Amino acid sequence: MTTEMQEIAITEEKPLLPGQPDPEKDFEAAGRILLDQAQKHSIETPHGVLHVTLYGTSNTRRPAILTIHDVGMNSKSCFSPLFEFDEMQEIVKNFTRVHVDAPGQEEGAAAFPMGYQYPSMEQIAEMIPAVLTYFNFRSVIGIGVGAGAYILSRFTMANQDSVEGLVLINIDPEARGWMDWAAQKIISLTSSLTEQILNHLFSQEEMSANGDLVKSHRERISKTPNFINIELFWKSYYSRSELVIDRNNSFKCPVMLVVGDQSPYEEAAVECNSKLNPTTTSFLKMADAGGQPQLNQPSKLTEAFKYFIQGMGYMASSVMTRLSRSRTASLSSTYSMDGGRERSRTLSQSSQGGMIPERSRTLSQSSQGGMIPERSRALSQSSQGGQVPSSPSHTMEVSC
Fold first, then answer.
1. Which of 158, 147, 291 has its CA nearest to residue 232?
2. What pLDDT, in 10s, does the model give residues 338-363?
3. Element holding 365 (H helix, E strand)
């Protein structure tokens, strides 16, 4: 009997010695640096160049978060306080994000020459697909404020498959009528363009108080060396056409509308909410948020945004900062991850902690603490601790 001997190569795995590099940790560290590092890009589009800032990598399976700012702002002044907020970091580390500056609005932009034909709102919306192509993004989650919300809405209507979700802050889909045009002419005789833009951005209460936020934006706008660029963007937005919304066809993706309870665009947002499909729309009316919820209430907006993306099937294990796991699971269970999403909710806040019932599947917020989801026909809590029955429609009440 012959016994065959076989040589077996055994690789000895030795623990890393102190000071020896760990490839896995180095890779993770490089990834964190990439997420934190701003990468500037200039992208050619059919209507001119767009300047964008990328955080993360374009090689991502998840949708990227794409933002567009309002008039009188740029991507930094409009979104930095929100995305630098501590509680937002859990989202930031899980998603690539790209901040789009409207033409000529980026920091350090050269002033446009006299007679320059600034693109219309429709044309700026037509520039966005070039951004997705440039980075090879399959889809995005859009966040827009004011003019940016309008632009993203137009982009989504023309590119339904490219958008998985929309967060529209201070949306106004209406065109300016003759009465608005006449009023604007009178205002332009008595107010500087800087003050007109500030009145667009902030509530009357904020303007009267003239707080630090208003002062800082007044100084930034009035002293910018490319003021003509801001003026052209403002005129383009003010000359926008009506955003014709069809309840069943305009947006196939879930939409969250956000507005401050004293915002100049509160009525416009409520009107827009009434035109959208209630089964895919959430409405968040925030107390103490003024005209810019992403600047004044980043914590509450972050928490609402986490709910929103959880409903899309992402970050299911994320724990809300002021939520118990059981409550989070209760809310998450109302979202369908197979495409049949049920999301018709209105998020509304009272600054006293009370619940303000809105239309079907209302999500209501107070400024007191975490979000507590309740099922349909939930009892709303009054500020005195009493219980008031909610409206007979299918509602979901949430306080935070």
1. 147
2. 333 333 444 444 434 433 334 333 44
3. strand 362-366
Query: Can you tell me the distance from the alpha carbon of 244 to that of 12, in angstroms, rounded to the nearest whole number?
Result: 68
Pairing verdict, β 39-45 and 48-55:
antiparallel
Q: How confident is the model at residue 17 (pLDDT cuts 50, 70, 90)?
A: low
pLDDT tens profile 162-185? 999 999 999 999 987 666 666 666
At 200, which helix (H) or strand (E)? helix 193-201
Distance CA 184, CA 190 (A): 10
- Looking up tokens 């500020």 gives 383
Two tokens at 222? 């009035």
Give the residue extent of every domain in the chain: 37-318
Bridge partners (DSSP) of residue 255 are 166, 281
Q: How many CB atoms lie within 10 A of CB 94?
A: 16
- The token duo for 260 is 């401050």
pLDDT at res. 324: 36
Between these two residues, 276 and 250, which has the higher pLDDT value? 276
Global pTM reads 0.75
137 three-class SS: coil
pLDDT of residue 191: 76
Domain 37-318: top CATH class: alpha beta
Q: Which long-range contacts (CB under 8 A, 24 or more apart) does 129-132 make?
A: 129/155, 129/159, 129/162, 130/43, 130/44, 130/45, 130/46, 130/50, 131/43, 131/45, 131/50, 131/52, 131/66, 131/98, 131/100, 132/162
What's the rounded mean pLDDT across residues 245-270?
A: 92
Q: Which two tokens stand for residue 137?
A: 């993004």
